[in-house]
Design goal:
Layout (H helix, E strand, L loop, with lengths): L1 H20 L2 H7 L4 H10 L9 H12 L1 H11 L7 H7 L11 H12 L3 H4 L2 E2 L5 E2 L3 E9 L5 E9 L3 H22 L8 H15 L2 H15 L5 E2 L3 E7 L2 E5 L4 E2 L3 H6 L4 H19 L1 E3 L7 E3 L9 E3 L5 E3 L2 H15 L3 H10 L9 H12 L12 H13 L7 H20 L5 H17 L1 H32 L2 H42 L7
Parallel strand pairs: 5-11
Antiparallel strand pairs: 1-3, 2-3, 3-4, 4-7, 6-7, 8-10, 9-12, 10-11
Helix pairs in contact: 1-4, 2-3, 4-5, 4-6, 5-6, 5-10, 9-10, 13-18, 13-19, 14-15, 14-19, 15-16, 16-17, 17-18, 19-20, 20-21
Length: 528
């Protein structure tokens, strides 16, 4: 109603005032080519100190605008395929610096969620939060489990009134995105409306703690046999959309390297383990923890689990399809063979570049990105940077970058940064190689053939016995036109079956060739 319109208007005025104060209007105007608009920008900037770099001014403005805009800046910083590098680097420095809300407010939220007093839920509850961010904060507590044992837990509580604030600010972000698309040169390529929609989904996902708990449970199950990482147990009886109760984890923050070294942790092994965990999640499971910055990672120094990672905060997880995994594995493999033509062909085959793209031009662009890396030892090559440069080169060829791969690239940069911080000599390729070898073997080996047959068997088992009866029925009852249409459909189904059988035969042939190659070149290893 009227009140909501007034609130939105007041918020819009605040945004305009802060934008003017940090010279964001001047940034927009100077991006235009028209001389009179550039002159307007010079006039508009008079009397204001706009000497700071543009990225810094944008970062400070977003911090001033509050938590939602800080989060928006963090999401934007991952879209290096769209933003200039200096701006993306500055936005990556944005931190959730939000004062905690009072413990009594947290208690009221918990009691409202469970409809019972606090002392009926917890045997003790610390009203002073141990961590605070823009969306939620964490308190320590104890509960009695089903066996009557007392367990230490961490309680994550959503900041009250967040949904209302988020929806208001999102409406304004969507409006600003529409302006950018219409008014800024190259605005359509920046895909402002798609980025705003991506941010909307990401924020609303973070506001549902049941979803976060489900992601944590999935990761815990996936990682159970690896013995390299611990993920807290979720207390499902005590989880609601606004409250999450999980096992309390104790460890040393991963960036306190001297403390870890003093405790006797093998630091180079820790670096290798981090990379192993990441590649297992990506290439084996296609489900990865996508917020692996040092604040979310600890290391256990307890005797029973000594040296294992502890993962926290599962608000952002990434998922990859089989197609995504295939694209990535083949790209990395072709890159390390310096087969740029194959990298270019993969871009075309995956449908990410228009089909009329000239492969030779794309190949030349990719070569200019990748070749400089090969003058250095492999341990100095950043896979995250390679992926990022590929995205930037692809931009010239109108490549549509999939959001899940941008999330993967951001996580890969995080993992690499963390790995190199722990061990400057970390050779990421050496650690990644076994995963790619195994993945490739599964794609072209006997396992692929077995999987294809297994997946399709129920369909054929159901269809084959019915065919004679169906055909007889069609011939008896159907008018000529219907019959022709049905026969066309049957012919199409037969062609699809033939294609599948050809694929299975091809997979078998490839498996045979792979076995012969393995026997002939076994001592040479992967790619010679």
């Amino acid at each position: 109603g009227q009140g909501r319109r007034m609130t939105r208007f007041a918020r819009a005025v605040t945004i305009v005032w802060i934008s003017m104060r940090y010279g964001l209007d001047e940034l927009v105007l100077t991006s235009f080519q028209h001389p009179w608009l550039r002159l307007t920008a010079r006039v508009a900037s008079m009397g204001r100190d706009l000497s700071a770099p543009r990225g810094q001014r944008l970062r400070e403005a977003l911090q001033k605008l509050g938590p939602i805009f800080v989060k928006f800046g963090q999401v934007l910083s991952t879209r290096r395929d769209l933003l200039p590098l200096d701006v993306a680097d500055e936005l990556a420095l944005l931190q959730d610096q939000v004062p905690p809300f009072p413990g009594d407010v947290a208690v009221a939220t918990i009691e409202r969620a469970f409809r019972k007093p606090l002392d009926e839920i917890f045997t003790s509850f610390d009203r002073t939060p141990v961590a605070s961010a823009s969306i939620a904060q964490v308190h320590f507590a104890t509960v009695r489990d089903k066996n009557g044992r007392e367990r230490e837990v961490a309680v994550k509580v959503l900041r009250p009134g967040m949904l209302k604030v988020i929806d208001q600010d999102l409406a304004l972000i969507r409006m600003m995105a529409a302006w950018v698309e219409r008014l800024v040169p190259d605005g359509k390529r920046l895909k402002p409306r798609e980025v705003a929609a991506e941010f909307d989904k990401y924020l609303h996902d973070e506001l549902d703690l049941v979803r976060e708990a489900a992601s944590a449970a999935q990761l815990r199950r996936n990682m159970a046999g690896l013995d390299l990482v611990m993920i807290p147990e979720m207390f499902w009886d005590l989880i609601r959309p606004e409250v999450l109760v999980m096992e309390r984890m104790k460890g040393v923050p991963v960036n306190q390297i001297e403390r870890l070294r003093a405790a006797g942790v093998d630091i180079p092994k820790l670096a290798r383990d981090g990379v192993t965990i990441f590649f297992t999640q990506v290439f084996r499971d296609g489900f990865f923890h996508a917020d692996m910055h040092p604040g979310n990672i600890m290391v256990s120094v307890e005797p029973a689990t000594f040296g294992r990672y502890i993962s926290l905060d599962f608000g952002i997880v990434g998922t990859l399809t089989e197609v995504d995994k295939e694209y990535l594995a083949q790209n990395f493999a072709a890159f390390f063979r310096r087969d740029y033509k194959r990298v270019a062909e993969l871009h075309v085959e995956s449908g990410w570049v228009p089909p009329d793209t000239r492969v030779d031009e794309l190949e030349a662009g990719i070569r200019s990105v990748c070749e400089p890396y090969f003058d250095r030892p492999l341990k100095e090559i950043s896979l995250g940077m390679v992926l990022m440069r590929l995205f930037q080169t692809s931009r010239r060829f109108n490549v549509v970058i999939q959001p899940q791969l941008v999330l993967l690239q951001k996580t890969l940069l995080n993992v690499e940064g963390l790995g190199r911080q722990l061990d400057p000599d970390l050779d990421l390729w050496h650690t990644a190689k076994p995963f790619l070898e195994k993945w490739m073997h599964e794609q072209i080996g006997p396992k692929r053939l077995q999987r294809e047959l297994k997946e399709q068997a129920p369909y054929y088992a159901k269809m084959l016995p019915d065919l004679p009866r169906l055909l007889h029925g069609y011939l008896q009852q159907r008018p000529a036109e219907d019959l022709r249409r049905e026969l066309r459909a049957l012919t199409l189904a037969q062609q699809q079956t033939n294609r599948l059988l050809r694929r299975i035969v091809l997979a078998g042939a490839l498996a045979l060739l792979a076995l012969i190659a393995l026997v002939l070149w076994a001592p040479g290893g992967f790619y010679g």
